[in-house]
Amino acid sequence: MKFKCTLLTDIILNMKSASEGANSTLDFIPGNCFLGIVANKFYDEKQCERTKTLFHSGEVRFGDAHPAKESNRGLRIPAAFYYAKGDKITDACYIHHYITDIDNIKAKNGTKAQLKQCREGFYIMTEKEGKQINIDKSFALKSAYDRDNRRSKESAMYGYESLPKNMELLFSVEIDDSVSDEIEKNVKDALIGEQRIGRSRSAQYGLVKIEEYNYNEIESYNDTNTVVVYADARLIFLDANAQPTFRPTPQQLLGGDAKGKISWENSQIRTFQYAPWNYKRQCYDTDRCGIEKGSVIVIEGVDKQYQGSKYVGNYRNEGFGKVIYNPIFMKAEGNGLAKCKFKEATKENKSGTISTSESNLFKYLKSQEKETKSVQNIYKNVNEWDGAKLFIDKEKFASQWGAIRNIALQCKNDDDIKNKIKEYISHGVKKEDWYGERTKKLMEFMDNNKDNLWAAIINLSSEMAKKCSKNGK
């Protein structure tokens, strides 16, 4: 069963248990979040068989939800992918275990390349192309509440990093054929609809919408001698003493009595460790220690083909253990150059990111540009006003222009400015001074600057008061 999870609000999924200091959020939703949603409705100790099958047998596996684009589920960038330090992955990407002559790998500027491992980011991967999915995480600063004093608590500030609203993620729930159809119906009934995920669910965080959604699967290529095992999910393996191990056997990775030997020098493994919180028991479960998603393990000398995806290792019911054998994007050309060519992420509102034209910074810069142009236009109109010649060196008008400036400062809107100035220059002794051409030129000026009349009149009156005085220049 395949599903789409759309974030209706920001959600918080801390990488580690809560503690002092900065804490980052995961860039995907772990499968155990979906297991928890189903367990909240169907975990019933009185129905032991159903509860065991759903949550403890491993026959029902809740996969991780990865960022998506259209009908493609993103994958964590393989740890076997490298690019030249100082360059970008879009310039050239190399697959570690296919590199035969590292000294001949050149950077974009022609010098010898120092290779850097790819570790972060989700990409839509095909045989020939890798498109990055942009994830703009949000951050909010919070303060604890002092109930006794009814105000913010002193010295109790903290921050939340979260995945953004409107982001879309895709995941699957795999159920063995031996499981009854009723179990599948129970999973759908519990998951589909609006749900709560992550921290601060009682506040403004954690609301998501889950619906059934079919998406594309990753293809595999044929190889009868070597298997490249890509970790689609985080992997957990236990040794003979039931202790976590970072060195699984070929049998644990491939299943059954598989042949072959792991080439550790060609493998790229990253690890993780965290303590999951069990809400039901209100305590921490056993630490999860394992191999991080995106890791690549190379197994040589196998005796048959391995293709497609499979769950291996322990804690499969929580989404751990999903691997892809010989994924199509792990092909390389000469000297390890990946066939898959990468593209940078584009800004899209649908995935929760903010396009440039809608960002607050862009809006601010546009408003500043508009204001600057408006001021420049006013200065130009004032300096080039053809009515100025009617007032130069006529000192008695200096005080009248000062009065006009005061009218503009006191009025609340442009209509009031225009009406009161017209009234001022058309009554009493001022009427004789302004009669005819002077009134006509001033009214034309106000009509030509009606979009920003307040600023235009203030600048004009200030400038004309100087020109009317004997010492004005």
SSE layout and pairing:
Layout: E1 2-7, H1 31-42, H2 48-55, E2 60-62, E3 66-69, E4 72-73, E5 75-76, E6 81-84, E7 94-95, E8 115-117, E9 122-125, E10 129-133, E11 138-146, E12 151-162, E13 168-175, H3 181-191, E14 193-196, E15 207-212, E16 226-231, E17 237-238, E18 244-245, H4 250-254, E19 261-262, E20 271-274, E21 277-278, E22 283-284, E23 288-291, E24 296-300, E25 308-311, E26 322-325, E27 341-343, H5 360-383, H6 396-410, H7 414-425, H8 429-434, H9 437-448, H10 453-468
Parallel strand pairs: 10-27
Antiparallel strand pairs: 1-13, 1-15, 2-13, 3-4, 3-13, 5-9, 6-7, 6-8, 9-10, 11-12, 14-15, 16-24, 16-26, 17-18, 19-24, 20-23, 21-22, 25-26
Helix pairs in contact: 1-3, 5-10, 6-10
